[in-house]
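ingest -> validate -> predict -> emit
validate: passed (alphabet ok, no gaps, 200 aa)
predict: started
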Amino acid sequence: MNGFQEHLLEVNEEQYPEFHITLIGSIYDIPELNEMLAGLKKLFEQPFAENIKAQFIGTGTSEEFIQKIRAAVPPKNLIMRSRMSQLEAQKEASRSQLLLVLGFRGMNGIIGTKPFEYMGVRRTLIQMPGDNDIMQQIIEECNAGYCPSTVEEFVEVVKTNYNEWKETGSIRYKGKISQIKRYSREEQVKKLLPFLETLA
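emit:
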């Protein structure tokens, strides 16, 4: 059952003093990954991104894969970290300014768990590229983040949020908490109970 534990709504770590874009967990060497990495490469060609950090946690599944990431992100901007406990990963998500998740185009109905966890910690997420499918619909319904479909849109999304952070010291979370709560595992169980009772 995809969703998040409601206790995530209480996770509220002090954010990093440097602007962090974080991706947590396994990602796959599919065409969409190349789009995401192209977006990061384009981002770090922009002067405003000079001090932005791209943090990957638990994603280094092979040397070839790691080299792809290093080709897209300059060494001074890249943070590669090993897998960690779920609780520590959730805290890292809360410390970050933006959270990144890979979109799956042409694979209808794919709903990963990570976007729900990101919504649970109330941090703005970017699905790159937007999948034009269920997950994008949920992100937009909850106003939980962005689903850019091009490299240029991705860079503009990051720039907009970076500028807000520079001016105010934080990114105001615009997610609709009442909508997001509908995707907690607790709420999902409530929806399933009537069906499960018919099987008893």
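The chain has a mean pLDDT of 85.
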